[in-house]
Amino acid sequence: MHSKTKAVESTEPSQDVAAGEVDNVSHKICYSRYNSPFWQIVIVSFVAFGCPGMYNALSGIGGGGQLDTTTQAKGHIALASVSAAGNLFVAPVVTNVLGPKWTILIGGLPYVLYAGSLLAYSHTGNQGFVIGSSALLGIGASLLWIAQGSIMTGYPLPQQQGRMIGIFWIIFNLGGFLGSMISFGLNFHSTSGTVSDSTYIAFMCIMAAGCACSLGLLKPYNVIREDKSRAAPQRAPRVWDEFLGVMRILKDWRVVSLIPFWMAANYAYNYQQNTFNAKLFTIRTRSFNGGMYWLAQMVSSYLFGLFLDNKFMNRRMRGIWGFVITAVISMAVWSGGLAAQLKRAPNSDYYPLNEMDLITSGSKYAGPFLLYFFYGSFDAVWQTLVYWTIGYLSHESPEQAARYVGAFKCMEAVGSAIASKVNSDKTNYNIEFAVDWAFIVFALIWAIPFVLSIRDAPAHEGQETEYVAQPKGEEQL
To answer: Which end of the chain is least crowded, N or C, by CB within 10 Å?
Structure first.
């Protein structure tokens, strides 16, 4: 059995970097080496651009581009339910044993099938095919997102994690933005309430191309950070050790403190996309709104990531202020949502269903549009902070990151499944809104013990995996 020792030569800064210069080096991102964390994150970002990015574009339109939003909501229940268990007990093990390249390739293929099921539904009304493909997508999404998360949070050094998350979020949500714009163009003159066949076909082609990008990923051992440390050991982990590793993190009280915060990460999507965007707007406006929603995510995540890497504050202060800023943004945006809800009262026709249009509705469209745009900003800030917490907990170890991402994605899927069930039951939208906002407040309050525990941990601290020392001469790769 492998002994557990502190990280040695392969995870410590090279001797040619003076001790006083390590912090400055860690703030710099290497753009010239293919085996740098930056380029590996760019590659996995393009996978996300093609696969979940296009999925988000379909979801952002509302109802997967269908007039009947209950089918997509039921499919999402199947997706989230299947992925909840897979995220925690299967995907982290597969990622660490099989490696990120093949894990992500396998995980990306069900996205193509899912888009195809919606295309078939437009002609056959076969709800079972959509729900079945959604369940299979739950397995694929587990594999893709846990492997992606291990790369994004496990490869960079602590002072780079915010920017790396922001870079990923820009490229990833560029998929949702362009997908929504494609749908906007293809459905500009549509009055059917359902996107065209060519929209689904275009998405399937882009998803397939995204899968192929995963073949450019390197083994974690071959990834060299800016301080000359390797991202992971060369040894192949054993399956049983992986299960034990997953179980150990579940006993961490900090994870318990973050469970509602992680559950809330996707909880509001159903309200925002199916109850707000899909119910109020015409099909072309839903597509345009979706594009702006993902554009808001791109900008907000990167700006917030820059703050989380602020070299004028230590790690503890960045974390504490990160939660404070997230809480302020959350309350401001959802207060705007309350104002919109009051105008959607049952005895009011101020916002008639499926009639709000970016061209014909005039100034009345401005308020709901801006609200949906800032819903995107809120989500990006929340998600960026979630991944920052995972990077903090995992100590830049991709193996540990995969386990923490698995725990996060499990909690996220549980929350999403609950929200989808509420949405599919056609709950009164005022109640749905109130529950969403209350859960966000509860999640922020419950996370306070974790926030107060954040400290200024140095790079590589806490890595207790057996690392193989670099062969002489390889440190300059």
So the answer is: N
State both tokens at 168: 């990923």
d(C-alpha 162, C-alpha 152), whole Å:
10
Do 43 and 216 contact (CB within 8 A), yes or no?
A: yes
Alpha-carbon distance of 71 to 64, in angstroms, equals: 9
DSSP designation for 156 = S
Per-domain boundaries in the chain: 32-220+237-453
- 32-220+237-453 to CATH, choices 3.40.50.11740, 3.40.50.2300, 1.10.287.130, 1.20.1250.20: 1.20.1250.20
- Read off the pTM: 0.82
266 — phi, psi (to 5°)? Answer: -115, 5
For 223-314, where are the alpha helices, taking DSSP H only?
A: 239-250, 253-263, 269, 278-280, 283-308
| pLDDT greater than 90 at residue 10 | no
List, in sequence order, every residue forming a beta bridge with 230; answer none if it has no partner: 224
State both tokens at 269. 């999507």
Rounded Cα distance, 152 and 42, in Å: 9
CA distance 8 to 432: 51
The answer to whether the CB of 194 falls within 8 A of the CB of 66 is: yes
